[in-house]
User: Fold this.
Amino acid sequence: MSKEQSISTVVLRRGKEESLARRHPWVFSGAIERIIEGDKPLAEGDVVDVVTKQGEFIARGHYQIGSIAVRVLSFEREAIDAEWWNRHIAQAKELRDSLSMTHNEHTTCYRLVHGEGDLLPGLVVDIYGSTAVVQCHSVGMYHSRMAIAEAIRQAYGEKIKAIYDKSSQTLPFKAELGAIDGYLWGRSTADDGIVLENGLKFKVNWEEGQKTGFFIDQRENRDLVRQYARGRRVLNTFCYTGGFSVAALAGGAREVVSIDLSERAVKLAEENVELNFGSEAPHRAIACNAVEYLKDIDDDYDLIILDPPAFAKHHKVLGNALQGYKKINARALQKIRPGGILFTFSCSQAVSRDIFRTTIFTAAAIARRRVRIIGQLTQPADHPINIYHPEGEYLKGLVVYVE
Assistant:
């Protein structure tokens, strides 16, 4: 019987184990004193053990090059093998089962795995009908993608017909993996690209669209727009595929205008509106800069949605990002009709809930309008937040009433 191969060991500096003792799932490079290699040279994506300076085991995880040096997979000394992947994907599905997401005839798209929130850091899996879309954000997860795909098949059986890997744009650039998006198993048909969200139809293109094809995390917030939209003229900025626009029309909006810099996104928004309401719906889609468009709208709208892309990917650019949020929100607050409602969001992990709220307060003061908060928004239950990893609360939003 062959001897079990030893893995590399990351030794922490004295006192740097405290965050791991609180089950935070990251080890930062500055916390490492030295690395003891195992039977083979350490490479990015390998599984490593993390120990204290005294040699006590703390965690096991994927090694990576960068400020986050280890993403923790387990706080137990256990094998990261097929049985481990099967168990963890099954546990993620069990949560969605308990939320009635896996058997909901009105909503057929949801997130199965949300990174640290499902104790699988560096991995995202979204379900679109009978297709699973896998997106790896770390080299370790990318190397494990076939085991992940098999675990999804084990969990879903015949309910999943295809598994697509969409990792080429999310992997670390310097890893130079040469990743190419493609099907890990099976293949989808054109009809599989139409999903339901709260009874509304959407075309999803996971092969060419942003993220995994659709912004699933705004599902509940879109439904809230639907509730508030009746009789209102709605402006949906940064509309992408028109999710908020479709929701507003479903809620009885008098007119909806969708704005996005991407002509392709605008076309998709138009297609989704037509898919649900036909070609005569009171909807216009314009390819233009949303910030510039807001300059000249006067008081045309009484419901505005600001859902920009992440202005701050990391803390180094936080200052500039906050200026961007303040500027666009001040313009919207200045222009919206009295009695209007503004839905405003930040999906920047670096922007905390308190900082975002303070930024909107500043924008309201600049606009010199009376503003009241009537809703505080976050990500839905299929995007869970690991209580030991508060950074996972990336989506925050406010609904404000403007007099």
